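Please decode residue identities from the backbone states below.
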């Protein structure tokens, strides 16, 4: 029986995708559920598992080809027998290869490893962390052979010849570039700034972080405070949570907060759905899970689609001040920055306080300066007096 291998359904906002490299060749045996190829969209990397076991009879789309959702890219003959089976040993069953994520597969290919060489923490799935742990343990062992000469730096020839390299942009990077350029061209972006004293939040966090982690199994970070503060400020200023659709303003009576995360393929913004219903612990747990899945390239398109407001934290990379760019069709984005000890005046005395600059970029076509400034002041007030978050005042 001939079985079609199709591109998974893509979101409405994703017109097409790009094939990676086939993990099987035409004529190779395949097992049901085995990943045949990775597909890169402008949002996520998707796996294409074999719908049936058999032999890969035909590959219709080559590596790096552009494809659309539900397009047929290969044919499997489910009744054919593979010719590349390893001889079976009566006393030693062949180990079953665990499922692989895209990040783990790339690391295996980079180091020439087989998935069956590495014991996964989860019996059914081998993660990037499993592969990295195996590599670290192998490097810690005494070398069995003289080390090979160190590789030349990329782009530098042994003779000192000056080289240029041309590498095609990934679909994600191209899409990021297109969206950033479109955001600048199609929105009247203005940024307002303020600074927030983090002393109260840091004291509260220091006082309760151990009990918080013991109870909820997650560390208490700063992002949950800012997400909660943003929700309360968005309630007071619903236009900041709105978006433009032609000549109409679309007000959203829910709060889907995007949290920018740096991933190997580029910046992605997974969405905290209905953030107003989440506790501080649930916010921290959701962010940690989404961030890990972003690093493993296992986020779904749905988890990256939508959103009514975005928060980005350049402070984790050392940024002291920046002007974030909108994430259309959203009308505003909050930028957090590095906490920096600075002298300030307090009741005619100079004291040292942990301060953070906040930046709110907004579409001036929809949001007036007064609303933007008051919105940012509302966030500042709740962070400097975090008990207001509990009272929602």
């Amino acid at each position: 029986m001939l079985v079609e291998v199709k591109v998974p359904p893509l979101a409405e906002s994703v017109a097409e995708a790009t094939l990676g490299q086939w993990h099987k060749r035409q004529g190779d045996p395949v097992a049901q559920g085995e990943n045949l190829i990775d597909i890169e969209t402008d949002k996520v990397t998707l796996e294409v598992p074999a719908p049936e076991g058999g032999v890969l009879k035909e590959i219709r789309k080559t590596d790096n080809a552009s494809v659309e959702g539900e397009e047929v890219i290969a044919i499997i003959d489910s009744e054919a027998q593979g010719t590349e089976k390893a001889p079976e040993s009566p006393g030693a069953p062949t180990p079953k290869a665990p499922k692989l994520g895209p990040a783990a597969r790339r690391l295996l290919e980079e180091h020439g490893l087989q998935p069956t060489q590495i014991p996964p923490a989860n019996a059914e799935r081998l993660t990037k962390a499993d592969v990295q742990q195996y590599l670290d343990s192998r490097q810690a062992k005494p070398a069995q052979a003289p080390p090979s000469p160190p590789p030349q730096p990329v782009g530098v020839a042994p003779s000192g010849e000056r080289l240029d390299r041309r590498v095609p942009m990934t679909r994600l990077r191209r899409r990021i570039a297109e969206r950033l350029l479109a955001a600048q061209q199609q929105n009247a972006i203005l940024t307002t700034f303020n600074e927030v004293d983090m002393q109260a939040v840091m004291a509260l966090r220091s006082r309760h972080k151990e009990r918080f982690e013991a109870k909820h199994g997650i560390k208490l970070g700063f992002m949950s405070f800012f997400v909660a503060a943003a929700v309360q400020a968005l309630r007071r200023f619903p236009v900041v949570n709105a978006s433009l659709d032609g000549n109409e303003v679309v007000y959203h009576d829910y709060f889907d907060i995007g949290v920018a995360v740096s991933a190997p393929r580029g910046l992605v913004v997974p969405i905290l759905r209905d953030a107003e219903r989440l506790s501080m612990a649930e916010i921290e747990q959701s962010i940690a899970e989404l961030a890990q899945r972003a690093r493993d390239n296992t986020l779904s398109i749905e988890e990256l689609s939508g959103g009514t407001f975005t928060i980005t934290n350049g402070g984790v990379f050392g940024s002291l001040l920046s002007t974030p760019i909108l994430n259309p069709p959203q009308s505003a984005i909050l930028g957090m920055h590095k906490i920096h000890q600075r002298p300030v005046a307090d009741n005619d005395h100079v004291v040292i306080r942990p301060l953070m600059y906040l930046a709110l970029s907004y579409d001036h076509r929809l949001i007036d300066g007064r609303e933007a400034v008051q919105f940012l002041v509302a966030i500042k007030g709740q962070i400097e007096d975090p008990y207001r978050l509990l009272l929602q005042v």
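Observation: The chain has two domains: 2-81, 171-391.
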